Description:
The protein has 519 residues and is α+β, with helices and mostly antiparallel strands. Helices cover 29% and strands 22% of the residues. The strands form six sheets. Strands 1, 2, 3, 6, 20, 21, 22, 23 and 24 form a nine-stranded antiparallel β-sheet that branches. Strands 9-8-7-14 form a four-stranded antiparallel β-sheet, with no helix packed on it. The chain has a four-stranded antiparallel β-sheet with strand order 11-12-10-13. Mean pLDDT is 88; it is low at 1-5.
Amino acid sequence: MEWSQLPLTLAFIFIAFVLPVIGLYKMFQKAGIPAWLALIPVLNTWHMLRLTRRPKWWIAAQLIPFLGYIFTIGIFLEFVRCFGKTKFYQQALTAVAPFAYFLYIGFNRKDQYQAPSRLIPVQGPRKLVREWVDAAAFAVVAATIIRTFFIEGYTIPSGSMEGTLLTNDYLFVSKSAYGARMPMTPLAVPLVHNTLPLTGGRSYSDLVQWDYHRLPGMGKVKRYDIVVFNVPHNDTAMADAPGRDYYAAVRNEGRETVWRRTSILTRPVDKKEHFIKRCVGIPGDQVEIRDGLLYVNGVKGNSFPHQRTDYRVQAQSGFYLSPDYTEEQHILYKGTDQAGNLILEMEQQTAAAIAQLSKVAAVTLFTEPKGYLDGSGRATFPQNKDLYPWNQDNYGPILIPGKGTTIDLNPATLALYARAIRTYEKNRLDIRDGRYYLNGKPATQYTFKMNYYWMMGDNRHNSEDSRFWGFVPADHIVGKASFVWLSYGGDGEDGPSSYTTKNGIRWDRLFRGVGALQQ
């Protein structure tokens, strides 16, 4: 974890997890039960339900998306009622700031525990319904404020960042690291992204659209940060696969085939799907990939121990890697080359270790040769083999534009930047009789209004990133990956990955900062 992020992460852990438990510790003492029970997750909730005489199945209800917020706040409200906290403002404080209100109840001398049977007046059905409605409203407001301006949970759905971040890592994303983005589509169901849970369908209305604004943050996007952002090409999506690249599907299958197969969705910026990648290029950088290696501004870029790609292993006869070792090191067998050398997908640190084995002559990157290929070459941005015959392993150089960057308008630059000019910066760009017109006026140059970034996955041969769809505009940035709070083995949305051979919780990843996980 970077030192700039450490105070924010520690502050969040302290406020969200430590302070409420300290308050519960004192409240349990007042209730006459062992205070140490407050220190154990789930068990402390069990005893709150026991003390309030509420159903124990409410614990399981906390795991239900969206409804879990309401049940959690409901449990808190029921518990503070046992200390006489039944007024509206007291219930509101419990819902919005339990970390502070639990401390107040626990440490002041006047508030004492009362068994539910001694509480008066007896609640009628109408009052109970009203209190649950209040609890739901408090929970939604509190969670929405936290989610919008401070921190949000995010789940890694696929293996594009392996082995740094794994499929089914649950992490928190800091909104304040770069400054919280103000809502751009305000008419939306709270606490969900772009699709309604259970029923499906859009969770928002685009009748009202606000301009992009961002609050001051703790810093700016830095090179090699791990960033969550809205996918730029997801302004148009396919209903049967909303996270997939619509434009790639049209190139591969034809527009008529795609439109005949599924309905087409359009999405505003803040309702596009989320991706998580590493920022390898910031405004003004020149990014290039040479034989699988990243170069930034002509200098070899940083690499990371858990970064994955394909390697060629040249070894003597009889070389053998045991199944236990390959499983432990998450090595995938990809075949052999024409000379019979092994092709293995693995992490950079694993490749370095195998290179030291006695029967191994050399371990080198296994990459596509330069030039347009039927493989990744067809898919790489800007999908123009005549001007830019690039592929995923030999790409660029390409300039990442920033606010104030000026380019000449010509076929070569428009192949790279036309979408940014037209779609992201909302200009009308026309070409008539070989001349260029911006918003109806003749132009020979264009100056960008916004910063852009270049994002790539650490799993270099299994990542849909900027090499395939281009730049990420500043207004698409959501936040910075902070720390993992839960992780378990199992298939992601793209099926099994190299890290999902075993199910169960990955205990060694819990509550670890993203900076620590990439070392």
